[in-house]
Amino acid sequence: MTRVLAVANQKGGVAKTTTVASLGAAMVEAGKRVLLVDLDPQGCLTFSLGHDPDKLPVSIHEVLLGEVEPATAVVSTSEGMALLPANIDLAGAEAMLLMRAGREYALKRALAKLADDYDVVIVDCPPSLGVLTLNGLTAADSVIVPLQCETLAHRGVGQFLRTINDVQQITNADLELLGALPTLYDSRTTHSRDVLLDVADRYDLPVLAPPIPRTVRFAEATASGASVLASRKNKGAGAYRELAAALLRHWKNGKPMPTFTPEI
Ligand SMILES: Nc1ncnc2c1ncn2[C@@H]1O[C@H](COP(=O)(O)OP(=O)(O)OP(=O)(O)O)[C@@H](O)[C@H]1O
Ligand SMILES: [Mg+2]
């Protein structure tokens, strides 16, 4: 059975794309057949995995509009994940989908045609709550919200949770909100911890473990065209491996996701 995970937060720069690439690489290491989906017209996931968004013959844009078979748009990456790539064309797909019936289901329909080929699909949502993110959430079994541990991280969380609730009411009753994933976490200061305590206190939202530490390796990885897991021995990669293992256990035998309790 294929599991579809959406990584979403309308706030920009919270490590959605980094999380998608790193979890994907970790799941390949764990022996899974993984498809990553770039739903962001900026094409950052596509670029960070070594493909030039401006040189794609076809992309997810044509797939969502039903113009090509999904499999024809899939490309491979050096770390073994398959990728449905995106480029700026996707900005136009958003407007074109708005005029169509069942517009929230375009990705779900496409993935149904690919399901037999993959164990896990991970969707990188754009930093907005528009029709593309609704497609990601409608196609997903589970969703994770990366949360950067900085002041005002909670802003927008309420609106995000209302969107999840709408999706559960209208297009995807089975969507499971796994929780917030603390990213860019600095364990040496109390600030990251205070931000998490504040969010956990305000919203009924589990905080997942382990938090992803802030390390310069991530910027290096993006520039190199491979995920952070390709550079051995760094604590960011270790955290993503641990999270990937927890997700696979959760899907396999319903084990609850580990949660993070900041020490006071
Ligand atoms: N754990 C980390 N430590 C240090 N830098 C990180 C970490 N995770 C991500 N970054 C960096 O933070 C920046 C934003 O990350 P990323 O692109 O993954 O965020 P995003 O949520 O996908 O952004 P957008 O909303 O624009 O799509 C990138 O430069 C990335 O390299
Ligand atoms: Mg991104």
From TrEMBL:
SUPFAM superfamilies: P-loop containing nucleoside triphosphate hydrolases. This is Chromosome partitioning protein. PANTHER family: COBYRINIC ACID AC-DIAMIDE SYNTHASE, P-LOOP CONTAINING NUCLEOSIDE TRIPHOSPHATE HYDROLASE. Belongs to the ParA family. May play a role in septum formation. Residues 3-176 form the AAA domain. It comes from Mycolicibacterium agri (Mycobacterium agri).
